[in-house]
Amino acid sequence: MNLHPTIGVLTDTEVLLVDIVQGKRVLRSILLPPGMSEPIGLLEHVWQSGLAEVWVMPATTLSRTVTSAWFEQANSHWVVVVHPDPCEPTRPTSVLLWPKGSRQREERRLTFVFPEKAGWNWVLPDARSLLATVTYLDQTLARPVIDSPDLVAHRMLTDLTHDQPSPLDPHTLSGGDGTTIPIMEIARDLMWVRPLTRVEQHQRYLHKYTHLSRYLEACMAVQLGAGSPQYSSNGRACDDVRPGIWRVSADRAGSLFDGKRLPSCLDGEWMSTPQVKCCRDIGYHVHVREGYYWPQSHQLLKQWATTLWQAGERLHTHPQSYRHAQARTNASHTIKLLAQIGVTILAQEKTTGGWSRPDWWAQVTGRSRATLFAHLAGLARKGTMPVLVDRDSLWVVSNDPNPLTAVPGLVGAPRWRGYTVGYQVPLPLSNEVRDTLRTAEHVDQVATVLDTLAGEAFL
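and the corresponding structure tokens:
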């Protein structure tokens, strides 16, 4: 930790920061002088505190009323660089400042950040929660998050990957019948629910478990194609290793993943290499008919994904260092959001800031799906069958009220597997919960209902 505080939170009356006194962290408040309504006075006061980042608490007077022009009033004494809100150009999301006439080599800058405008959507009941959130992110990511999520995610992805890819035109990949391969439809997020069995009907609790990000887990090992794709007219080039896009014929062949007891892995006739391997691993018979593959590949996203994964791991495995529960949740959601945006960037067009590599997106989402089915297969071998899967979350029925032991090895494993407890207090398996699972039509709506019931039960 820095020996001098660099991050503070500004309210209507004070600047809240964490200082170091005799080697210990101490919460300290710097009161604002009364009547400080002009920018020059505020900037001078904050500058003297030595801070580098000032996060303006949402719903404060400054957060509600500030404009870019207000900061620019200080340009006689300060260099003012405003980052405007794209949705409201007269309002800033952040402002970078330094005194005019300061020597270049001093390099000290002051940034005011408005999280209310930036779009992080943190839950911030008080100034301490905001200070803890941005401090945790600064410590785990070792980089500021003073811009919007899109900008932070793009910069982080670029900084932690060494080679910018050449774009791929997806219209150049077509099947033997001449139709373009629907790359962006190859792997969808898994959303699945089933009715309770007779045995489950008589159990007492419903537990929820949430994974940090299957995208990150996938990106730490996924192989991405390099060079030009090669066409395989008979599919024999599919070796379950080289990245590729394949047209397949598949059947479940007695696999437990039949769509009834466990979700089906089949989701169309085109699959990425990780999906083909996954289907074979869980007992499906898969015949590859044709496809494209990349003879060369690399793990370009490993450093980026590992950095984000390790940040999430530190938050959840060292609670003694990150004690503020809401800030820990905010920081974890931020890491998840950065991962989601980063993967989206892979497929976006160059003209909109993306990398124009839908084939990479397909390999990542395919491997993400494969890691989920591998987890489900591991649970099934131990006798656990989830009743609901909604993207990165799963729900399990049990007679054990303790979420750490209801599904052995999921959360309390020696090595963190990315899972955290979704309901600190399990949801009683009431008639309302049973009916919700039995009459489910839309999985996301079921998940929302259960989360609402769990929140009400907790209160």
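(Above: one complete record from the training split.) The chain has a mean pLDDT of 92.
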